[in-house]
Design a protein that fits this description.
Elements (H helix, E strand, L loop, with lengths): L19 H11 L4 H25 L1 H24 L19 E9 H4 L12 H17 E12 L6 H21 L5 E6 L17 H6 L5 E10 L1
Length: 234
């Protein structure tokens, strides 16, 4: 590449232009991508060559030689500086936040059927005030705490008193009543309703089957509705 005339160092006093090879190397360094790191050495090298030419004209080669040596050193150092020089790295674009996939959670809620319904009852009209309050609180918790409810599994249970057929039907009706109530309170999502009758007893309370107030009270934990919620919390 031909150097820009504006980049040339002018001769003075008609000085001879000694060492064309050094002038050529210094000119090439001006076109080097690392010239920014070598500019000072290049300028000094050219100045020393001008001095050498002037001394050669005035007093001969012996007086010009030291300047030539300095120009050689400046050219060599300039070449090294240019090779080591690296253009500043382009700024990296800001990292965009990576959207995290929604985290599905599973939550288990157990409701005491004795607090939800009158004894041996299962309809909405049979719900006790305490039971309605608990379901209202649960509906608020689900609506405010979940961004999305994927599914709910509502399972009713009874105690071991009574026939298996009767307890199965009672557990199903209670689970369905809870599901209907939550839907009326605005809870969305797929709901599956199941009755397990007297399966999965929590307490045994001995082996007696005669219905007595003490036994009914002891078996209370078995009469329950369990709700499993799967969804994404806020």
């Amino acid at each position: 590449t031909t150097p820009n005339p504006g980049d040339q160092t002018p001769q003075v006093n008609g000085a001879a232009k000694l060492r064309p090879d050094l002038w050529l190397k210094l000119g090439q360094l001006k076109q080097h991508s690392g010239f920014g790191c070598a500019a000072q050495k290049v300028a000094c090298g050219e100045v020393e060559l001008v001095h050498a030419g002037n001394e050669y004209n005035q007093q001969g080669w012996r007086h010009a030689k030291p300047y030539i040596q300095i120009a050689e050193d400046m050219t060599s150092q300039g070449s090294s500086s240019a090779e080591r020089c690296h253009a500043p790295e382009a700024p990296q674009p800001p990292m965009m936040p990576v959207a995290q996939p929604p985290v599905m959670t599973t939550e288990q809620v157990r409701l005491d059927a004795g607090a939800l319904f009158r004894f041996d009852r299962s309809g909405k009209d049979d719900m006790l005030p305490e039971g309605r309050a608990k379901l209202d609180e649960l509906a608020r918790k689900l609506s405010q705490g979940y961004a999305q409810i994927e599914r709910m599994t509502i399972t009713g249970y009874t105690d071991r008193l009574g026939t298996e057929r009767y307890n199965q039907a009672l557990s199903e009706r209670r689970a369905q009543a809870v599901a209907n109530y939550l839907k009326e309170r605005g809870v969305t999502g797929s709901m599956s309703v199941h009755g397990r009758g007297k399966a999965d007893q929590v307490v045994a309370c001995g082996t007696k089957t005669k219905r007595t107030p003490a036994l009914v009270s002891c078996l209370q934990p078995n009469r329950r509705v369990e709700i499993q919620i799967e969804g994404v919390k806020r």
